[in-house]
Input
Amino acid sequence: MHRYFASLAYDGTAYYGWQIQPNDVSIQQFINEVFTMVFREKIETTGCGRTDKGVHASQFYAHFDLTSEIENVEKSLFQINSLLPRDIRVYDLISVASDAHARFDGIQRSYSYYIKRKPSPFNNNYFWFNRQAVNVDAMNEACNLCLSHLDFSCFAKRGGNQVTKEKV
Output
């Protein structure tokens, strides 16, 4: 078996998040279907995390296994991106160790939230519009409170095997 990480990005406006949903369209569904077509074997990806309905990802990783090595990554990327919807792009396919895990081997995650005071027809799906001025000092103070916490178990699935890693 050969394991690969796929580096990808997507505009989540039209989707119900990353993870496959029984009655809704997801990013993972499209990735699995297209990878299965291109590599001519059943592919099931594992994402580095989950995103909710309408959430975008500018740098997302998923791993998958193949029975043989990818001979030409550039050709495979061309085929994949030709078949995917325009709001999903795969940027790279990276050969990794057979036990590498997109979710559990991640060492950092970041989330960005954008606030604008004037709406624009060009970025309605990417910004939260707030006509009132925000109190940046109060926001920074609230963010600093988060830095003093190391236990984020309230964000994990109950009964799961997630662990909180302390800063090294």
Observations:
- Residues 27-39 form the longest helix (13 residues).
- The first strand starts at residue 2 and ends at 10.
- Helices lie at 27-39, 73-83, 136-147.
- The beta strands are 2-10, 46-47, 57-66, 88-96, 115-116, 128-129.
